[in-house]
Specification:
Distance between the termini: 28 Å
Bound molecules: hypoxanthine, zinc ion
Largest sheet: 7 strands, parallel
Keywords: Hydrolase, Metal-binding
CATH superfamily: Metal-dependent hydrolases
GO molecular function, one term: adenine deaminase activity
Structural class: alpha/beta
Shape: globular
Number of helices: 17
Pfam families: A_deaminase
GO cellular component, one term: cytosol
Domain Adenosine deaminase: 14-360
Length: 365
Amino acid sequence: MNGLAISPFIAALPKVELHLHIEGTLTPSLRWELAHRNKITLPYATFEDLKASYAVTLNHRPELNGRQPGIPTFLEAYFAGCEVLRTEEDFYDLAMAYLRRCAEMNVRYTEPFFDIQAHTRRGVAATAVLDGYLRAQGDAKCQFGVRSRWILCFLRDEPVAKGLAAYVEARPWAAGTVEGGKGLFHAVGLASNAYERPPMLFEEGFALAKADGLHVTMHCDFGQKDTHEHMHEAIFQVCDGHGSERIDHGLDAEDKEELWQGLVDRKIGLTLCPHAYHRRTATDVLFPKIRRLRDRGVKMCINSDDPTLMHDVWIDGNMQKVYTYCEFSKAEMVQLVRNAVDMCWAEEDVKSAIYKELDEINVLE
Ligand code: HPA
Ligand code: ZN
């Protein structure tokens, strides 16, 4: 189920990643190193024990599926990892490790999510997080040629007022029309546990971002309680009825014509993360579902979500999965990357350069 060998075609394909939580790229080895650097005792005696703890957990939704005693949920494991991130240097190192890996995987451009509240609620200064990522954004462009525009996520299971306060604090690091904005983040998103936390709760946050000239995206997790209602809000109600610009996951739209037709009509693309669903969905259910959505004209692109907590399957492994199990042709795989370029919020010259590279790929070989 986990790792497929990456074919030379997928490895060489220029890529764009639009659904990636930076905290979900923390490797066991960097976590181990940062714990030592910050004199934090991890609840694992050895590095091998720490590594074993990354074999996370299928009980992603304890509210729906019950708890397995002693086993953390996916999000608990994710937030536990954050504990070692304390200083600007830590956030810089985390981001640079991911962006270096982007270069190795031929990811030309990426829009990473970051959870500022996951750090400030532990007493970490917002400036440490934001300056660390900002420095990595600049250095990765120069050193690796990897461009990035970042997305600040509201934690949807925290009170809305805390999300709004986090946005106001981070605003000087925004792009858009924010005067003197440092240009780190170009959008807001909505992440963490969606249980009984529908998108419309955060309408005020989306409005703040829009007023600052930023973009808006939001998670509609696969298989979540009230998933169709959440999707309905994201497509038709948020942002003063205009809908979200993109939806992260959103695979459940396939169940209802009103939803997938709404995505097509409103030109809302989905940022899919196939391995995240494949962990708990049969191959012959999942990949035909992705194909049907695509065949109905829903725009989609392929991403990795939280690769180190998802069996170390990165964007190349996720693309390999749809190449193999959806039986897409080379031309169709190139189209998936083109979709990501269409859906992304990069500068026009960055987009043009990637389109040009894609046009030059020989899909007949
Ligand atoms: N779902 C929702 N929020 C998240 C996730 C996820 O898979 N990963 C990090 N934040
Ligand atoms: Zn996600």
